[in-house]
Amino acid sequence: MTDTTAATVADPYSDAEKAEFYEQLQAFAGQEMGIDQHGSDPVNVPMIRQWVEAMGDKNPIYLDETAAKASVHGGLVAPPSMLPAWVMRAYGVDRNALGPNPYADLTALVESHGFTSVVASNSEHTYDRYLRPGDEITLRTVIDSVSPEKQTALGAGHFISTRQDYFDQTGERVGSMLFRILKFRPKPQAVTAAQPQAPTARPLRPRPATTHDIAFFFDGLNEGKLLIQKCSDCATLRHPPGPMCRNCHSLRWTTLESTGNGTIHSFVVVHYPQVPSFDYPNQVVLVELDEGVRIVANTLDISREQLRIGARVHLVIQRCDDDLSLPFFALATGQDA
Ligand code: ZN
């Protein structure tokens, strides 16, 4: 939500100071991160299997040796979007212990001028070729560019782009990803007398970004129904909602009310960062509904010990506040042990 009544931020820097600051920032453009990042393992079928199972990707070129041989690839290949997975480091590795980190220095410099907030703006992927089992991948990260100060709807800020180039064992580039963020100076909160809240009052849940395509889903919840989109031409069900059928590309659709019965396909327990409108630990489940589509929701009265993949669950729609009802999943009866 953008508060248009917020006061504009007084700009603390003169044009000359800004020009000098921009020059300092430009010194970072083209700088490489101090180390190349090598994959712990070569491209391999077990990791591909985990990935395509999690994604529900049934394309045989990834796992079926015979089908892959008969395809244009002539053998097994890895899903292109898996590219970053081949060089991922273990969680908890201290990046700063690995060598010079100009990106951290750039971030610190930008923040020292008050551009403390961040929002991701865009990401562009280029895949030069399919990877095959046995390929050894190395990542090189470079600060691609830093923009002059720009005025945006969020406030004044600088766009920072990093480029990640991926190379194989022969040094040939196999893919590249450009990632751009906006570091901006946050607007001060508007001082308003409206809606005073007790200090202990819990903020409302974030509002869903409702569009014409998704409004039916939240309207349905407010009426106590979990509605799944259904193609009017080929009857394929889809969730999350979207304007077009992925199967036959039809734009005509209707809805089907879910029975609310399903199975936990996967889950994650969020501990941090904590958003005040949620309970922590925040248990988020990916439920495969019996109708065949998957939905993300919170749990209801399921302990951490009871939370397991394969558990049968059923839907409980709860009104969170005046205009928002959301789906939750509780254990199906007879399964409370
Ligand atoms: Zn269809």
Concise synopsis of the structure shown:
The protein is 14% helix and 31% strand.
Number of helices: 5
Ranges where pLDDT stays below 50 over 5 or more residues in a row are 1-7
**Spatial shape:** globular
Mean pLDDT: 88
Tell me the name of the CATH homologous superfamily of the largest domain.
Hotdog Thioesterase
Give a count of the beta strands, DSSP E runs of length 2 or more.
14
| Strand fraction | 25-35%
Most strands sheet: 6 strands, antiparallel
> From the 3D coordinates, which CATH architecture of the largest domain would you assign?
Roll
Give me the Rg, rounded: 24 Å
Q: Say what the CATH topology of the largest domain is.
A: Thiol Ester Dehydrase, Chain A
Structural class: alpha+beta
What is bound: which ligands? zinc ion
The total domain count is 2
What is the N-to-C order of secondary-structure elements (H for helix, E for strand)?
HEHHHEEEEEHEEEEEEEE
What is the helix fraction of residues, given as a range? 10-25%
Q: Could you give the distance between the termini?
A: 43 Å
At the first level of CATH, the class of the largest domain is Alpha Beta
